[in-house]
């Protein structure tokens, strides 16, 4: 029974000392970090080149459909009803193929977004690793991303911005 008060005091001391150590919080701006990273510009250029090629292909399909309509209108008086309906069906098939192409390339799960994820994944991994190292070096309990859409951050004190530390960790110099 003599040890009970000592144990209670020791427990209280540990509890109080635990609450006295303040947790540190900070934030970063991932958009700012990405825009400063040289690899991001390369990824953006590659995506833009792919997108331009796919857009040209989509425009080519649209032009082909428009030309088919123009030709149909020009020859409309010479065609029988059966021939007219046949050409109209060909145009509808071409329009359906165009919609499918656009959906396959630019849709929610399309090739463009898959390629974007594929190209950005290594860069995002590098940045995440740097963020983790900065957080550990600075004993941060939490690090928020100011650029994330539903962040809920209304005001941030620039003293708590660790974006530059992450850039330093990545070996990127700030060339305003």
Automatic annotation (TrEMBL):
Superkingdom per UniProt: Bacteria
Keywords: Signal
Record-linked SUPFAM superfamilies: OmpH-like
Stretches of the chain forming a coiled coil according to its record: none
Biological processes, Gene Ontology terms: protein stabilization
Keyword Nucleus belongs to the record: no
MF annotations from Gene Ontology: unfolded protein binding
Tagged with keyword Cell membrane: no
InterPro entries hit by this protein: Chaperone_Skp, Skp_dom_sf
GO cellular component: cytosol
The protein's name: Periplasmic chaperone for outer membrane proteins Skp
């Amino acid at each position: 029974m003599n040890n009970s008060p000592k144990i209670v005091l020791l427990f209280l001391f540990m509890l109080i000392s635990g609450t006295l150590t303040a947790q540190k919080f900070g934030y970063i701006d991932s958009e700012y970090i990405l825009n400063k990273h040289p690899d991001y510009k390369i990824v953006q250029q590659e995506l833009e080149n792919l997108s331009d090629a796919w857009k040209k292909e989509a425009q080519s399909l649209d032009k082909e459909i428009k030309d088919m309509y123009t030709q149909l209108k020009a020859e409309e008086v010479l065609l029988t009803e059966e021939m007219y309906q046949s050409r109209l069906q060909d145009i509808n098939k071409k329009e359906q193929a165009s919609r499918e192409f656009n959906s396959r390339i630019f849709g929610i799960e399309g090739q463009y977004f898959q390629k974007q994820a594929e190209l950005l994944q290594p860069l995002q991994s590098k940045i995440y690793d740097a963020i983790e190292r900065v957080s550990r070096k600075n004993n941060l309990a939490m690090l928020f991303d100011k650029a994330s859409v539903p962040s809920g951050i209304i005001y941030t004190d620039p003293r708590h911005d660790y974006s530059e530390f992450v850039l330093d960790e990545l070996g990127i110099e700030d060339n305003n």
